[in-house]
Each structure stands twice: as structure tokens, then as C-alpha cells.
3-dehydroquinate synthase
Amino acid sequence: MENILEEKGLVYNNGMAWEVFSKHLDQQGNTKVFVIIDENTQKHCLPYFHKNYPSENGFETITISAGEKFKNIETCLNVWNTLSEKGADRNSLIINLGGGVVTDLGGFVASTFKRGLQFINIPTSLLAMVDASVGGKNGVDLGHIKNQIGVINLPEMVILDTKFLETLPQAHIISGLAEMLKHGLIHDKAYWERIKTADFSNKIEFEKLIWDSVEIKKKIVTKDPLEKNLRKTLNYGHTLGHAIESYFLENDNKPTLLHGEAVAIGIVLATHISEESLGFPKETLKDVTQTILHHFPKQTFTQNDIKEVIKLLVFDKKNRNGKVLFVLLEDIGLYKSDCVVNNTLIYSAFEYYKNF
Amino acid sequence: MENILEEKGLVYNNGMAWEVFSKHLDQQGNTKVFVIIDENTQKHCLPYFHKNYPSENGFETITISAGEKFKNIETCLNVWNTLSEKGADRNSLIINLGGGVVTDLGGFVASTFKRGLQFINIPTSLLAMVDASVGGKNGVDLGHIKNQIGVINLPEMVILDTKFLETLPQAHIISGLAEMLKHGLIHDKAYWERIKTADFSNKIEFEKLIWDSVEIKKKIVTKDPLEKNLRKTLNYGHTLGHAIESYFLENDNKPTLLHGEAVAIGIVLATHISEESLGFPKETLKDVTQTILHHFPKQTFTQNDIKEVIKLLVFDKKNRNGKVLFVLLEDIGLYKSDCVVNNTLIYSAFEYYKNF
């Protein structure tokens, strides 16, 4: 299992990606090609995809509704039924063209239809490029619980083309940024220093940061594909981040947060908890908080909100024996996984976030 | 991937199985143990299971409705939700105690909950013992299409205890027999000769036949876990068998066939097609047909029934490029996979079955 990622292709050389992609498809000779898109990528990304893959044999598109709330088993059922009706067989290929919802759901649908079809991810959002694209995690939500159902199964290939980012709303770019900041914090001080001061309007600098972010994630998941230990660090900020995202999603009084917006808050909270319980440097905590709040709008939490968020922590996939387990940091790049965190520390972190 | 089966345990030594099972659970120290059962195994098998596994830590049971028509995503959703509510985490263990529906569905639920929990199969029907138990195929039906959704993922352990068969209705014993007859036909002439003349009331002889049947299946799936070629032979009789089973299931005018009853018909049809197109010996065809009809009641098919069954063949998982592909035999143990079969041959096979 160690070299599972190396068996599959990750193509992120912008200039060559589509050439490699076309050659791969010609060689594979899949019986049918299905492209899963959502309403947004149908409009903004499909034409560009088609220009770069003017297939003679053609492909069929399957469109799902856009947004996290459709990342569920019902949508899977629709796609499975469509594949069935359109005669997909075991040698068909699924191409997931979209953000994290499309690649997560499409990867799960492909991995389970007739016990597994090949699939290729073409992430079109920054979040999907730097996070969902690499590592083979796929799946859907169960009610409001994120990613409860899924498998780990690698795509045949991931195509990264930053051209897709040009059609992305600014809030979604920022959302992806949260994962890039996280990659710096958990693994690479130099990267953190670069990204926190980066000029994102400089296209070349921004692209370089994206590739490096993917490299960090790839390095981590290659070392620990099944999340025995190191890979848990990728969950930094996600324990509370996921719970906040779920809570805001199910509450009509709250705005729906993008994944990265919720994770950004989770990163501040986890870093404050790290400071209180593992001695994470105070100055760096301040630095992290300032950087996050520079990019992400502050959200308000009542005491009741916090109580409800804490309740949702019981669904975290890292939990063991009913205990909520956090990944925390002693310093940038120095992680400690499976940390038990009491509620006082969580309330205190929210207090810090509120008053900063 | 070649030795994937060898990494996991198959325990079928009757006398030792429960001891090995208990030791395994003690060593693993899973946080929680969930036993998936259906209404039948709750009544007939759970007490015996509990007697053999008097766990101090206890376990929780999750009961699903019995029968193939509940082997679907809706039932999975119920079980996933129950696991969520009862606080299953990644270190929980699922034990599937039941026939093929329970082991197929339970294996899929376990493989996909939080991206995969460990599971153990304890097949309680003959069919599940000689077929579903080995090889890691799991999944559920999509509408009336059998096993369209699933993954290949091995249980940690399979416990075979023929004591469970004592509570099984005779029709279900016979249903399992179809797969055992198939194992002889596709792989082992000597086994075929033994099983066709066996005295099933002789408990020792019967048990020996079961173990040998499992050994044949294990040998095949170990050589070809991902069904590139050899494993396809296990599908002998299933191409038409599955279609007949689906057709009878969705038709109120037809009796619901047990899996083995449908496969038994499929075996006769496939063997007739083998005789017509690959020169399978006429005498052996007669022998096969007599053996099957000795055990399984004959079903009637109108021309329209046959037409509808043929329509359902397009959903067969072995199909490629819209072509229905059969596994056929030149003789016992001599298979040919990916055979294109035209409808005339299928009608002719039904005619033969009818007139025999």
C-alpha cells in the first residue's frame, strides 16, 4: 500500500496536462466516457474542457445540482441510475469536472458503480486543486455530518489547470486559501512565511504556491495513505471547522459558510488550543490569527452556538472510544495527533477568536 | 494485490472457529462491536452466536428486514444512520451475521462508513457460506438490478459454522447447492462427480463438500481477486440467472426465486449454449440438466418472459461496449470468458430447458 499514489498519475504541468490526458484516454480505450459536472461547471468549465479534449468518440455529461447540500446519497442514486440507463459498463471512465463536491461525490459514485469504474479528477476550484484532488478520499455527507460515507480510492489521474480559477468567484479563491495556509502550518515553515505575505494578484507567484501546496499534500498522503498517523495532520483545523460548517449549514439563521471559511475559523481555534495545551508560541498564534482574519470575515458565535458546535464533534471521524481527538501543533511543522481536548479549552478558544 | 486474501483470515475449522474468533477480538480491542442481523437470524442465529461469544464488553445489534428486496441503498442509509447515532467510530467492528443479503449489505456498509470499518462475516446460510463469504465482493441492488453498487473489500475474518444450517429451511439449503454444483462444473470434475451423487443427509459428507466448495472459490479469487479473467468463471450461470432473478422479483405474477434457484436455471441454459457454441459434451449437458432438475423445481417461461429477461442482460457487470458477455464451458473445468452470445442461442436454450 505504501506506493499506492505512485501508481497513479498526477498531472499538474499546466502546459502538458491536456496532452497527457488525451494520450491516456487514447491508450485506455474506455468504452464510454461520462463527465460529471454541476450547474456551475457546466456553464463555466465545460466549454474550456471540450476545447482541450475535442474527443471524436464524444462523451456524455451528467449534471448534478451545485452545492454542499446536494453532496449526499440521493444525488449518488441519481447518478448511479443515470449511469445504468446510459449503459455504463466496467470499462467506462468517469471524469469529475468541478469543485470538491463534484470530485468527492463523483469519485465515490465511480468507486462503487459495478464495484468500481476508473475515474479522473479535473478540479476546477482552488479548494479542490489543493485538497480534494490528491489522496483518494471521496464520499458524501450523511444528513449534516460531513463525509460520513465514502471510500479511499485513487483517481487514475488528476489534471490541474489553473485556467479554471479565472471563472471562480473571489470568495471561493479565498476558501481554497485556508487549506494552503494549513499546509504551511502543519508541514513547512518556509511555505507558511511565503504564503502569508504572498501577492495573489501575481499570477506566477500564485501558481507556484498552488503547485507547492499540492506537493506538500502529496508528500503526506504518500507516506500515510490510510491515515494511520501523519495524514491526520491534514485534519488540522477541521475538527471544529467541520462542526462549524455543519452547524451553519443546518441553521437557517446562519450564513452558509464555504468549507475554507469554516476551516479558517477552525485553524484559529486549534492554534489557540495548541498554545494553551502544547505551548505553541504566542507570537506565532497572533501571526496565524492576523493572517486568517486578514482574508476571512469574522463570524459571531453565541454561547449556545458553541454548545451546539461541540455537540457535533461526536461525529468526527478521528474520534475513538467516544473521545474527540484533535490534531494540535507544538510549533509550525511539529504536530501531535490524537489529543484529547476538554470543553473549557474550546470555549476559551472561541473567546479568543471573538476578542481578537 | 495478488495475495490480498492471504492477509485476511478464513476460519472454517468448525471446532476451533469460535476460539480463534474470540482471540482475534480480544487482540483487536475494537472500541465498539456492532452485529448486523436480519429478522430471521435475530431469531434463529443470534442466541447461538451469543453462546459462542459471551463478550463481557457486549455488542449492539442492528436488525434489517429480511429478503433480497431490502438489499438496497435505503437499508444502507438506515444502518449508516444507526451507526452514527450509536457512536460507531473508525475502530468499531461490524459483524455480519446472516445470509448473503446481510453479508453483502453489511460488508458494503462497513466498507463505506467513515471510509471503512473492519468487518467479520459469519454466514448462516449455505449460499453465503460457499459464495458470499469468500472473495470480498459486497454491495447492494439498484432498483431491480442486482449488485450494481458495491466495492471489493475483504472481511478481517470469515467464520464458517455449519451448525447454523440446522435452522435453515430446505429450500435455502438447495439454493446454496446451486453454487456448489457450479464450483464443480467450472473447476473440478472430481468434485462435480462427488457432489452430484452425494448423500446430503450424511452430515460428515455434506460438511466435507462445503469446505471443498469454499476451497475452490478461495483458490479462484486468490488467483484473480479483481476479476480480470479466471474469477469471471464464478459467474457461470449467473448472466441469465441474475436476469431471471431480477425479472421474477419485479413481476407480481411470478414467484420470488431464491438466488440459487435462478442460478440453477441459468446453469442449465449456459450449459446448453456451451454445447451449441463450444461443443460442450452432449452427455454431460444431459447429466447437468438431470442433476439440476432433480433438486430444483422447473419454472415456466413464456416467449414474452424470455424477451424481458434478455432485455435485463444489458445490466450485466461483465458487459463491454454494450455487448452481453457470457462465461461458457468447452467441458467441465474448461472455461472461456467474454463469449458473445446471440439471442437465437438464448431462445434455443430456454426451449431445451422447457422440453427436457
About this structure: The first strand of chain B starts at residue 9 and ends at 11. The interface with chain A takes residues 31, 73, 76-77, 80-81, 84, 87, 89-91, 111-116, 137, 139, 142-143, 145, 147-152, 314-315, 317-322 of chain B (CB under 8 Å).
